């Protein structure tokens, strides 16, 4: 049974894929469905949802269209989630491969540095980084990656430690390949699968961290973010709780979709590799 | 000579990756009360499946046809109480984070209704019976602190803690060193005699079987191909496979074995 | 026992080294900020160029980076974290004032998430594949996906605004002069919602780990052997399967402490709890870099200490540790 069929037979994985597709759809359609600035005033302030069908989800404190903000917020969450995860996986793979392959002092030093990054709570680190350099999308991505690269690094290192004793590495050495070349052309590609298995967890964590940073006011001020929307809604929590609740539901569904789809992919491809 | 257990036409099928694999085919066999019966075969012969089937430990995914009767008691046997089971590898058949004494005591407590202190006292007695050095400290030792042979003695003690009528040893010596194997075989023989238990000894080692058993059953590919007393099997095997098994056993003790069978090296 | 002590000493030396890297790294990071504490101070209080220079000199901010780093490290050895610009008090005092609240929050939340999480995990893992197992599996995944700060707000809306059972925030009723048990009860009531918010997020983690651990333990041969000895299902599940599945969770406790400290930043912010997390947010807002540095350092020390304690606890619980075997 090929992996796709197996994936389609797992209800949780399919549900996750549907959620993810919805999210990606929202992100892509946003500029088409809601052209113009989503932060522009669209109507009267604090309009409840389902009253005016041109503003189906109502408006916020300043009269901005909640639905437009919701759709545009999906772009930010998706972009940051994927970019931060990619950066964390890239940094982690490189550091882990170097440490595992080189061994000795390089390994010791790199592992102590990894320990240091793991000792500081990643959110505090992200907080400090964003506050030092200034909030913008790229900085937020870097800040999140700074806190999450250590997991992939450890996994990559563990894989490399077992791979480097294998025959094809020895023969590459015998041919006279430069160690760095061996490390990144032979070893790293084979060490990747377990690292990539972590990617859904990292993407999910990145999306949640970005939301938390935006909630605290450290997100990119020029972009609509779900975290920012929740923070805005906090001021009118008593009178208009939906302003904070709706973006939160979007976050939960997004992260859930990432988890389920990601776990589904890992399960179906892992079985194919003959792991049991 | 009454039968402890009567196996009628037993067939066991495992399901693996959507395929049905027949591990046992139409086995009919009686286990006589008080006897020492060895079941011999190579891997895949179904001998372990037979042991699990008698004990009622088959996985849920297996399909069972035929029946096993227990004429002596009339009811199906209780695990631990009526049947003691000793597994092959004592380093994985004991819980690594529980003391050895507690693992024996909990069996006594479950089946004999003893208090914990009574159960621990019984555990100590059992450790003495299986000849474990320094039973007092052994009670509080963890499995990883004991050697392979010592661990297997503990496993045997736990198996007989509730005084079962039938002891099943499934390749109980295969994971041990040769000298230790002989000690464990001697231990099993002594315990079975002392308590009047029936012994079902599963092994791939025919020489071990001939030392321990009164009757030998030879299995191949899930079928019972020969059954007889030890003397019969060794001197006049009727099946070519049995003869091949005997011949294949070449060892330092081959001469006495062959002499006993009336043949010469 | 001596082997354990040798291990401990090696860990301590390693930890000091790691903390050193943390200090230097964070110091250099915060140095990269455009503008410093003086700029932030001037913005709020006003002053001319002469004033700026005077303040810089007074606060030692006109010296070279390396000199300042050296001075900082030297001060650290005397447990002096410097002066906070925002509060005009020694940073150590400010931190020590707020630390107990965060510790209280974290310990309670950990107790909730670990206790309830592993109990539910055992309940689910006792019958793998059953309806309750699948329900708890999906449910915990959904909980895992919930942002902590949002959960906090939802809890506030339900329990503090709509039902009015619990207070909206803070750690105790202000100016109430309660003492002893009364005060403890007051604090406890204020902490119910924040602890619930922080605890429920990580509950999902322990639930899933315990469930996975149980599934793994069920496959072990000693479980079949325990069944072969005729032990009751309940005993097999609790005394053998769960006990073995618990060990990796203990290790997780240590790893989670760092994440929970980070999580406490938003929770304390949502519930206005005067703890270390909230202090970090205030430091960021005020660009009080020495304070932020002090908080990060304190958090790192806290994480190291917690991990050490967890390792000691683990050594107690897993008899294979220190025996030269591959224990965990």
Automatic annotation (TrEMBL), chain C:
Keywords: Cell membrane, Membrane, Transmembrane, Transmembrane helix, Transport. Residues 99-314 form the ABC transmembrane type-1 domain. It is found in: Cell membrane. It is a multi-pass membrane protein. The keyword Kinase does not apply. InterPro entries: BPD_transp_1_N (IPR045621), MetI-like (IPR000515), MetI-like_sf (IPR035906). The chain crosses the membrane at residues 12-30, 103-123, 135-161, 187-207, 291-317. Belongs to the binding-protein-dependent transport system permease family. PANTHER family: ABC TRANSPORTER PERMEASE PROTEIN, DIPEPTIDE TRANSPORT SYSTEM PERMEASE PROTEIN DPPB-RELATED. This is ABC transporter permease. The lineage of its organism: Bacteria, Pseudomonadati, Pseudomonadota, Alphaproteobacteria, Hyphomicrobiales.
């Amino acid at each position: 049974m090929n992996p796709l069929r197996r994936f389609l037979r797992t209800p949780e994985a399919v549900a996750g894929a549907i959620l993810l597709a919805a999210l990606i759809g929202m992100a892509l359609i946003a500029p088409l469905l809601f052209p113009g600035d989503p932060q522009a005033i669209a109507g009267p302030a604090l309009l409840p949802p389902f009253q005016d069908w041109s503003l189906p989800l109502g408006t916020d404190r300043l009269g901005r269209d909640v639905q437009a903000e919701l759709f545009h917020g999906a772009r930010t969450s998706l972009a940051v989630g994927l970019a931060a995860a990619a950066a964390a996986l890239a940094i982690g793979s490189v550091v882990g491969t170097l440490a595992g392959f080189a061994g000795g002092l390089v390994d010791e030093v790199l592992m102590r540095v990894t320990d240091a990054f793991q000792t500081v709570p990643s959110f505090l680190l992200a907080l400090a980084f964003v506050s030092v350099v200034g909030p913008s999308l790229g900085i937020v991505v870097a800040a999140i990656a700074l806190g999450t690269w250590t997991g992939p690094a450890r996994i990559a290192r563990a894989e490399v430690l077992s791979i480097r004793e294998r025959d094809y590495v020895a023969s590459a050495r015998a041919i006279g390949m430069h160690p760095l070349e061996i490390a990144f052309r032979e070893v790293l590609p084979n060490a990747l699968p377990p690292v990539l298995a972590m990617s859904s967890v990292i993407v999910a964590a990145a999306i949640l961290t970005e939301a938390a940073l935006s909630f605290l006011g450290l997100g990119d001020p020029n972009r609509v973010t779900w975290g920012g929307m929740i923070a805005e809604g906090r001021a009118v929590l008593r009178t208009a709780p939906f302003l904070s609740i709706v973006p939160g539901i979007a976050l939960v569904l997004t992260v859930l979709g990432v988890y389920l789809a990601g776990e589904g992919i890992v399960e179906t491809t892992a079985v194919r590799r003959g792991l049991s | 000579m009454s039968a402890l257990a009567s196996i009628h036409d037993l067939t066991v099928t495992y399901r693996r990756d959507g395929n049905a694999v027949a591990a046992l085919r139409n086995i009919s066999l009686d286990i006589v009360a008080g006897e020492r019966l060895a079941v011999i075969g190579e891997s895949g012969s179904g001998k372990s499946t037979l042991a699990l089937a008698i004990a009622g430990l088959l996985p849920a995914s297996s399909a069972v046809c035929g029946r096993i009767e227990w004429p002596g008691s009339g009811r199906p046997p209780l695990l631990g109480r009526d049947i003691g089971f000793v597994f092959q590898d004592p380093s994985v058949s004991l819980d690594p984070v529980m003391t050895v004494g507690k693992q024996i005591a909990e069996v006594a407590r479950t089946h004999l209704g003893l208090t914990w202190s009574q159960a621990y006292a019984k555990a100590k007695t059992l450790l003495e019976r299986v000849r474990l050095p320094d039973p007092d400290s052994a009670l509080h030792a963890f499995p990883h602190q004991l050697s392979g042979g010592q661990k297997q003695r503990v496993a045997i003690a736990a198996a007989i803690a509730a005084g079962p009528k039938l002891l099943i040893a499934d390749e109980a010596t295969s994971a041990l060193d040769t000298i230790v194997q002989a000690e464990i075989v001697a231990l099993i023989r002594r315990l079975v005699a002392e308590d009047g238990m029936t012994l079902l000894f599963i092994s791939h080692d025919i020489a071990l079987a001939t030392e321990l058993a009164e009757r030998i059953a030879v299995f191949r590919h899930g079928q019972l191909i020969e059954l007889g007393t030890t003397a019969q099997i060794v001197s006049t095997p009727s099946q070519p496979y049995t003869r091949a098994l005997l011949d294949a056993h070449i060892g330092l003790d081959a001469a006495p074995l062959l002499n006993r069978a009336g043949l010469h090296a | 026992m001596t082997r354990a002590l040798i291990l401990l000493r090696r860990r301590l030396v390693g930890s000091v080294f790691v903390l050193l890297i943390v200090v230097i790294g964070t110091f250099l990071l915060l140095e990269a900020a455009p503008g410093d504490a003086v700029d932030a101070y001037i913005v709020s209080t006003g002053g001319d160029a002469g004033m700026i220079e005077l303040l810089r000199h007074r606060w030692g901010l006109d010296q070279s980076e390396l000199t300042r780093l050296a001075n900082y490290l030297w001060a650290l050895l005397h447990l002096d974290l410097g002066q906070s610009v925002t509060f005009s008090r020694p940073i150590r005092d400010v931190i020590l004032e707020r630390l107990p609240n965060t510790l209280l929050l974290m310990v309670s939340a950990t107790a909730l998430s670990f206790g309830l999480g592993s109990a539910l995990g055992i309940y689910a893992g006792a019958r793998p594949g059953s309806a309750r197992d699948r329900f708890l599996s999906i449910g915990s995944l959904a909980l895992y996906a919930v942002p902590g700060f949002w959960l906090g707000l939802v809890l506030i809306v339900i329990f503090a605004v709509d039902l009015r059972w619990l207070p909206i925030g803070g750690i105790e009723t202000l100016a109430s002069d309660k003492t002893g048990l009364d005060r403890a009860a007051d604090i406890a009531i204020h902490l119910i919602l924040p602890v619930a918010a922080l605890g429920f997020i990580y509950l999902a983690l322990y639930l899933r780990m315990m469930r996975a651990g149980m599934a793994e333990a069920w496959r072990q041969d000693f479980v079949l052997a325990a069944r072969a000895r005729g032990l009751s299902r309940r005993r097999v599940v609790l005394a053998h399967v769960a006990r073995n599945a618990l060990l990796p969770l203990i290790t997780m406790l240590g790893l989670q402490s760092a994440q929970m400290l980070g999580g406490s930043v938003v929770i304390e912010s949502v519930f206005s709890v005067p703890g270390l997390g909230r202090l970090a947010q205030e430091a960021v807002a005020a660009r009080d870099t020495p304070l932020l540095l002090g908080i990060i350092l304190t958090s790192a020390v806290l994480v190291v200490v917690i991990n050490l304690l967890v390792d000691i606890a683990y050594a107690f619980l897993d008899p294979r540790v220190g025996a030269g075997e591959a224990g965990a």
